[in-house]
Amino acid sequence: MESALGIASHFIEKSFQEDIRLTNMQLQKMVYIANGFYLALKEKPLVNENVEAWSYGPVIRPLYDSLRVFGSGRITNNLLSLYSSPVNLSDSDIKAVLEFTWKACKDKDGIQLSNWSHKEDSPWTKAVQEQKPIIPNEYMIDYFKKFLKKK
User: Fold this and answer.
1) Which tens digits make up the pLDDT trace of 128-143?
2) Does the pTM exceed 0.85?
3) DSSP letter (8 states) at residue 48
4) Is 57 helix (H, G, I), strand (E, B) or coil?
5) Cβ atoms of 96 and 38 closer than 8 Å
């Protein structure tokens, strides 16, 4: 498994290479989505950390804590690279999931990604309705597998 900080650091580097603006909200959702697709593909999590069901959406607390210095603004440097190990891109499944997630999400703003994560049948919605503080991996597997079948 990888750290959420390492996955986010990877996406931050991609954003700098492609001159794309990213915010804390976008990164939260991108790491959540990458973890969901990896769970659906491998039936094990991509990230070490739990995904929490906060009032405003799915959140990985260590990632939120590390990025809150940027507020809702653009992430202007990759502080996360100081705290995390590089992602294992030699693992073809990890590399494929990260590339797929990047291509699917890089042009979406935080609100668009948030709206997607808040859909009526989403793992976050189900966890909130059931008053679960952590989104169970099983919810994510079931939800994200539906999208893999469409491909």
Assistant:
1) 999 999 999 999 999 9
2) yes
3) S
4) strand
5) no
What is the Cα–Cα distance from 111 to 115, expressed in whole angstroms?
6
Q: Are 24 and 70 in contact (CB under 8 A)?
A: yes
Amino acid at 70: F
Token representation of residue 130 = 């059931």
pLDDT at position 147 is 86
* Three-state SS at 134: strand
**pLDDT score of 67 more than 80:** yes
CA distance 73 to 71: 5
Asked if 12 contacts 80 with a C-beta cutoff of 8 angstroms, the reply is yes
User: Measuring CA to CA, how many Å separate 76 from each of 5, 10, 70, 144, 147?
Assistant: 16, 14, 8, 31, 32
Angle (CA) 69-84-127 rounded to 5° is 70
Q: How far apart are CA 88 and CA 82, in angstroms?
A: 16
* C-beta atoms surrounding 145 within 10 Å: 15
**Residue 103 neighbours by CB under 8 Å, 6+ apart:** none
Cα R_g (the chain), whole angstroms: 14
